[in-house]
Backbone:
C-alpha cells in the first residue's frame, strides 16, 4: 500500500527536473478516482458484496435454516465453512445474510445522507435562528451515544425487521454528516461565484442545488460511506445481542447463534470466524473507498515515498512531501547558516514544465543544480503523479 | 469562562433531550406491554411494581401527557429509575450502581492509554510519511473495521483455555470476595487484561489515522518551515511545533468519538461476560427489562456528557484562543 502516487519533482531556478511528460491528456483524467489503488480496491470489494447480496440466495448451496445430520462439522468440501449445531451450512448462511447486511447498510446510509444534506446545507446556507436551532439539534444527536439509543429503540419496537432497523439507524446517525456539510456550506456561501449568482438574481434553491451542492459531492459521498460502515456495524451488533429478529439471516445472526450455542467452548472456530472476516473485509473495503475519496479531494493525504536528493556539492537533502526542505549551508565553514528552500516536492500544486520555479532564491553557494538527476530511493511513477 | 458556560448550557440541553427521548420511547409501543410483561413474569411483579410500570409506559390514562412528564422528572430527580424485572426486587439504580465502576475502570483506562499511544504513533506516521510506520496504516484500518466483539471472540478462542493465564469470562475469580485487598484487585486485573487489549487494539487505529492526517496538514504550514530554517532539531520541530498544533482537533475528536468507544466497550463486555454496564444491557435486552434498559441508556448518556465536558476542559487548557475570549 505504500506505492508512491505522487511524483517528486525537483524545482530549481532553471526549471523542474525530470518532468518532461508534458500535460496530461484529458482521457486520463476520466478515471482518476479509480486510478487510486485504495479506491479501486475498495470499489471492487464493495461491488463483489453487492453482487453477493443480489445473487446470494440463489447460489447458496443449501437452505440456510435447513437442518441436517452433519452437526458441528469443520469446513470440508461439502460444507465450505462448516456447519452449526443444527447441521446448517454456514457458507449458505453467510451468502443469504449478505442481502440483509447490504440492504440495511445502504438504506440507512441513504436516509442519513438525505437528512444530513437537508439539515446541514439548510442550516449552513440560511443562517440565523434556524441555523442555531439546527446546529443545536445536530450537536445533541452527535453527543448522545448512538448505539445504546439504537438498541433501546429497537428493543422497544418488538421484533424489528430489516426495514425498521435501517430506519432507526438512519434517523440516529445523520448528525456527523450534517455538521461537516454545514461547515463546508458556511465557507462556500461567501465565495465570489456564489455572491455573483446571488447578485444575478438566482433563486435561493437554485443557488443551493446548482452552485453549492456540486461542490459538496465529495463530502457527501465520504459521509455516506462512513454511515454505511456504521450502519452495517450497528445492524450486526443488534443481531448479535439478539435485539432484532434472529430468524432472518445476517452475519450478526450467525454470530448470535455461535455465541449462544457456546461455539467458543466447543472449539467451533469456523462458526464465528467467517462472519467476522466478512464484516472486516467489507468494513475495510468501505474505509479504503473513503480514504480514496479523501485523497481525491485532499492530495496532501496521499502517502508518498521519502527520497534523498544529492545537491551539487555532494551533500544529501532529505526530500519529504508536504515539507519545504531547508538546507544547512556552510558558508566559509563557520556556524551553519540556514538557506531558504531551493528544492521542493510539489504534490499539491504541480508546476507546469518550463515555468520558473517560484520559491527559489538568488543563487547561493549551495544551490543544487539540475544536471544532477534526483536520486530518489523510490522511483517516481510517471503515469499517476502528473495529472493529479 | 464564557466558553465553559456555553458548554455547560449545551450539555444541560443535551441531557434534557436524552431524558425526553427516554420518556417518549416506551410510549411509542402499540398495545399493552405491561400485561404482556406481567404474564411473562408470572407472580414476580407485585401490584405496586405493575402500577409504576403503567406510569413508566404512560398507560395510566388518568394523567395528561404533561402530568406524566412531570411525574417522570420527579421520579428521576429522586434517583428512581424504576424496579428492575430481572433483578427483582432490586431497583434499576442499585443494579446499575454495582455495574458502573467496572465499566468506568475498563473504558477509562484503556481509552486514555489507546488515545495516548495512538496519537503518538500518528505523530510519527504523519511526520515520516511513506516510511514503515506509515505503511502500518492499512493494517490498522483492517483492525478498526473488525467489530470489537468479534475481536473479543477471537481473543477468547485463541488465548483462553483450561490452563491459560487469561480467564475467558467474568470480572474476578469466583473464589475471591470483592474487597480492597490484593487478592481481589489482582484477580480483577487479570480478568480485565484481555477485554482491555481488545478495546485497545480496536480503538487505537482511529487515533493514529486522525493524528496522522492532522500532522500532514500541519507540516506544510509556514511556521514549520520557519522552525526548520531556524535550525531547530527535528525532534523539537516535530513535537513542539507540528504535534502541538495537530493535537487540538484530535482532542475534540476524542470527545466526539467517546460515545462510539463506549458502545464498542459495551459489546466487549458482553463477549467476556464482564460485570459492567454492557453485560447488564445484554441481560436487560434478553429479558425485555424496560426500566433497566432505560436506566442504562440514561447513565451511559450522562457519563458520555461528563466525559465530553472533561475533554472540553482539556481543550481549554491546550488552546489559549478559547481562553482569551472570556
Residues:
Amino acid at each position: 500500500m505504500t506505492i508512491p502516487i505522487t511524483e517528486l519533482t525537483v524545482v530549481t531556478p532553471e526549471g523542474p527536473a525530470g518532468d518532461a511528460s508534458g500535460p496530461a491528456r484529458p482521457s486520463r483524467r476520466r478515471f482518476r478516482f479509480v486510478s487510486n489503488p485504495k479506491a479501486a480496491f475498495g470499489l471492487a470489494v464493495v461491488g463483489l458484496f453487492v453482487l453477493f447480496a443480489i445473487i446470494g440466495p440463489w447460489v447458496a448451496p443449501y437452505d440456510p435454516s435447513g437442518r441436517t445430520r452433519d452437526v458441528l462439522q469443520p469446513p470440508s468440501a461439502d460444507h465450505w465453512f462448516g456447519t452449526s449445531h443444527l447441521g446448517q451450512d454456514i457458507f449458505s448462511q453467510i451468502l443469504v445474510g449478505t442481502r440483509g447486511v447490504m440492504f440495511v447498510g445502504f438504506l440507512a446510509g441513504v436516509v442519513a445522507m438525505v437528512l444530513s444534506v437537508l439539515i446541514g446545507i439548510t442550516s449552513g446556507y440560511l443562517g440565523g435562528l434556524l441555523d442555531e436551532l439546527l446546529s443545536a439539534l445536530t450537536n445533541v444527536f452527535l453527543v448522545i451515544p448512538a448505539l445504546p439509543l439504537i438498541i433501546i429503540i429497537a428493543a422497544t419496537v418488538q421484533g424489528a425487521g430489516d426495514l425498521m432497523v435501517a430506519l432507526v439507524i438512519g434517523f440516529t446517525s445523520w448528525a456527523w454528516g450534517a455538521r461537516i456539510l454545514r461547515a463546508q456550506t458556511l465557507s462556500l456561501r461567501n465565495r465570489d461565484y456564489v455572491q455573483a449568482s446571488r447578485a444575478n438574481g438566482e433563486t435561493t434553491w437554485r443557488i443551493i442545488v446548482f452552485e453549492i451542492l456540486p461542490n459538496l459531492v465529495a463530502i457527501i459521498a465520504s459521509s455516506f460511506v462512513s454511515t454505511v460502515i456504521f450502519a452495517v456495524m450497528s445492524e450486526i451488533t443488534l443481531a448479535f445481542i439478539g435485539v432484532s429478529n434472529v430468524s432472518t439471516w445476517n452475519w450478526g445472526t450467525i454470530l448470535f447463534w455461535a455465541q449462544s450455542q457456546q461455539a467458543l467452548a466447543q472449539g467451533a472456530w469456523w462458526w464465528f470466524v467467517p462472519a467476522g472476516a466478512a464484516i472486516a473485509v467489507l468494513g475495510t473495503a468501505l474505509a479504503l473507498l473513503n480514504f480514496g475519496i479523501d485523497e481525491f479531494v485532499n492530495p496532501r493525504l496521499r502517502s508518498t515515498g521519502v527520497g534523498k536528493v544529492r545537491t551539487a556539492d555532494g551533500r544529501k537533502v532529505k526530500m519529504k512531501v508536504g515539507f519545504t526542505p531547508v538546507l544547512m549551508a556552510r558558508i566559509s565553514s563557520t556556524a551553519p547558516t540556514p538557506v531558504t528552500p531551493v528544492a521542493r516536492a510539489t504534490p499539491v500544486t504541480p508546476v507546469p514544465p518550463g515555468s520558473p520555479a517560484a520559491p527559489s532564491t538568488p543563487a547561493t553557494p549551495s544551490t543544487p543544480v539540475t544536471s544532477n538527476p534526483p536520486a530518489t530511493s523510490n522511483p517516481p511513477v510517471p503515469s499517476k503523479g502528473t495529472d493529479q | 469562562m464564557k466558553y465553559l458556560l456555553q458548554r455547560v448550557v449545551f450539555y444541560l440541553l443535551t441531557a434534557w433531550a436524552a431524558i425526553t427521548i427516554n420518556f417518549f420511547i416506551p410510549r411509542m409501543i402499540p398495545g399493552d406491554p405491561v400485561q404482556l410483561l406481567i404474564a411473562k413474569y408470572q407472580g414476580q411483579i407485585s401490584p405496586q411494581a405493575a402500577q409504576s410500570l403503567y406510569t413508566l409506559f404512560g398507560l395510566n390514562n388518568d394523567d395528561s401527557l404533561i402530568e406524566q412528564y412531570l411525574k417522570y422528572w420527579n421520579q428521576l430527580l429522586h434517583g428512581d429509575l424504576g424496579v428492575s424485572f430481572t433483578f427483582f426486587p432490586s431497583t434499576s439504580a442499585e443494579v446499575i450502581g454495582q455495574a458502573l465502576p467496572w465499566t468506568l475502570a475498563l473504558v477509562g483506562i484503556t481509552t486514555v492509554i489507546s488515545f495516548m499511544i495512538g496519537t503518538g504513533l500518528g505523530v510519527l506516521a504523519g511526520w515520516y510519511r511513506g516510511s514503515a510506520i506509515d505503511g502500518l496504516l492499512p493494517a490498522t484500518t483492517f483492525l478498526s473495521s473488525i467489530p470489537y466483539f468479534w475481536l473479543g471472540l477471537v481473543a477468547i478462542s485463541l488465548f483462553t483455555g483450561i490452563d491459560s493465564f487469561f480467564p475467558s469470562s467474568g470480572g474476578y475469580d469466583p473464589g475471591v470476595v470483592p474487597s480492597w485487598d490484593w487478592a481481589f484487585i489482582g484477580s480483577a486485573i487479570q480478568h480485565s487484561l484481555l477485554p482491555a487489549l481488545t478495546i485497545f487494539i480496536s480503538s487505537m487505529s482511529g487515533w493514529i489515522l486522525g493524528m496522522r492526517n492532522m500532522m500532514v496538514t500541519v507540516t506544510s504550514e509556514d511556521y514549520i518551515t520557519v522552525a526548520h530554517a531556524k535550525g531547530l532539531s527535528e525532534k523539537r520541530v516535530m513535537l513542539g511545533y507540528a504535534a502541538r498544533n495537530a493535537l487540538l482537533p484530535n482532542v475534540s475528536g476524542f470527545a466526539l468519538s467517546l460515545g462510539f468507544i463506549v458502545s464498542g466497550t459495551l459489546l466487549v463486555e458482553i463477549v467476556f461476560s464482564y460485570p459492567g454496564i454492557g453485560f447488564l444491557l445484554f441481560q436487560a435486552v434478553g429479558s425485555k427489562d424496560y426500566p433497566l434498559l432505560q436506566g442504562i441508556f440514561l447513565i451511559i448518556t450522562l457519563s458520555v456528557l461528563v466525559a465530553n465536558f472533561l475533554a472540553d476542559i482539556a481543550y481549554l487548557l491546550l488552546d489559549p484562543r478559547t481562553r482569551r475570549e472570556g
